[in-house]
Amino acid sequence: MSDEVMEDKDVMVVQETLFEIVELVEQPKGKKHAIIALPDAGLVGTIAGMHLVQALNMELVGYIDAAIMPPVAVIHNRKARPPIQLYANDDFLLIVSEIPLPAEAMRPVSTAFLQYLHEVEPKSITALGGTPLPPALRSQIEVPEVYAVATTESVYDRIMDKKIKFLDEGIVAGAYAIILLEAQRQRIPIAYIMAQAFLNFPDPGAAAETVKALSTLTEIPISTKALVEGAEEVRVRVRDLMNQTATTMQTSSKEQEFQIPAFYS
Amino acid sequence: MPEAKQPKKRKNELERIDESVKALQSRFDELFGSPVGSKSRIRTLWDGDSCCLEALGDVRETETEYIVTLDLPMVNKKDIELTTSDEHISVKAKMREEVHYERWGTVQREIRFRSLSKKVSLPRDADSEHIKAEFNEGLLEIHVPKKNRQRQVLID
Hints:
The complex is a heterodimer. By secondary structure, chain A is of the alpha/beta class.
């Protein structure tokens, strides 16, 4: 056996222990719409995820523990859990992270998400995020626009059918970029829904628009009333996570989303 | 020779792992502060003694001015106090309602926050005499002109 082969085997062993997916409540296959909600521009995904848990009475059903994530446990109801958690109700399965993903963790953790979702065989997968605007521009927009990116033809058709705008040209940076590319490579159907948002300020208004788009795509009514009415308090309560996420976004080049793409077609 | 190459390969691998660990530690320190014993960078965005939260801020620069934007949710315009000096802009704002945490942490139990504040250092070329500000939808936008603004010169 050559050194090269031995090294490959070693790497594979490490790969197997990179993450652990634990279901506290077993999730039925093919029954639910999956949602990925990660801290990103304006904390759009996180705020949308927090709202969905409350508005849809979702319960904690599991977690994803990844070795490459910072050594952090979140304590809820006196129990320690990894910061990436799974919530579910009869219709939805939500993957949400309570801390920003470090740039080094984005690829392995995104791979873990896709592997898990492949096993669960959800009816659909929607990722929720924000596409940043400079504060002066975002503050002039009352209702942020929502744009979509599809990873397969079937998702493309569904988005077209629901009359959601596509991001025709641009750049997506961070964990969602990895999820999109990897899902496209593996032919996993994902709709990435992003709303115009502040980059470094929590943006519940943008989060509400992504929830509306999720409702449109899944044809399941989801109220955004509580999110809109409680928006100012949400902005106060998630400041610390926004501050941490802003630091992380600098290393994952999130500001590239402002840039004019060189290869514009 | 393979025997000679293997230790080097292993060393490279160890160096790579070491670099990854250092990079992760650095990220963790950035997010949560450095460990006890090293120069502490732990900085909270709240002060329980004064019941005050630090406002999130964003600073952008144009050719003629600096634009400081502060996120001040749950605040009315009349409750914002904006003061300036040659070195700083200070903002204090009373919130309409207090934000209350009952079960968070140890010393923070039963903590209540009633205001937001922010102190922003001004660069040397900031003209603190002519600062203007506007408040809309919980965002305070402060325009700080530059002292030595460039002027276009006509070429004969």
